[in-house]
Amino acid sequence: MDQIPYIRPEKLNEQTNNRRQEFTALFKKLKAKKPKNLDGFIHELHDEAFDQFDCLSCANCCSTISPVVTEKDAERMAKRLKMKPVDFISGYLYIDEDNDYVFKQTPCPFLMSDNYCMVYEDRPKACREYPHTDRKRMYQILNLTHKNCRICPVVYAITEELVKIF
């Protein structure tokens, strides 16, 4: 992968819109064919991209979307904040349309001005795994990956490379 150009978060949506047809065709093709080597390609691109990219320079995910927060996540963060889980849930979370707990606000209430996370060691599982480009059976989350092109410069860069490969 070539050097990842840093795309300012406010430009990601525009850049993705500019390549909408190309990216949509790619993900449609990948869903239809389910290439056996898809995980390998994406994981290699993921590793290369994160060798070059520092999430602290961006934090767009923390600024614009809310992760799913499991009850275990809530318990862990509540303990970290010396709160009762019920108080943490009522103070920070609500149940969304998918019946999942998510933060009441964006940016994340734990995102600090330097883009560090106040509860990093105890952050939700969804945050630990974001942008999900290193998980197995990537074909199962291609819709999410496509959506994340608008949020994460690394996902956008990986998708650009996938267009070249496939």
Describe it for me?
The protein has two domains: 9-62 and 131-165, no CATH class; 68-129, no CATH class. 52% of the residues lie in helices and 4% in strands. It contains nine helices and two strands; from the N terminus they run ααααααββααα. The chain has helices at 9-18, 20-33, 38-52, 60-64, 71-80, 85-92, 125-129, 142-148, 153-165, and strands at 93-95, 101-103. It has a two-stranded antiparallel sheet with strand order 1-2. The two termini are 15 Å apart.
Which strand order does the major sheet show? 1-2
Major beta sheet, specifics? 2 strands, antiparallel
- Structural class by SSE content: mainly alpha
Strand content: under 5%
What's the number of domains? 2
Termini separation comes to 15 Å
Radius of gyration: 17 Å
Number of strands: 2
Throw out a few tags for this protein.
4% strand, mainly alpha, 166 residues
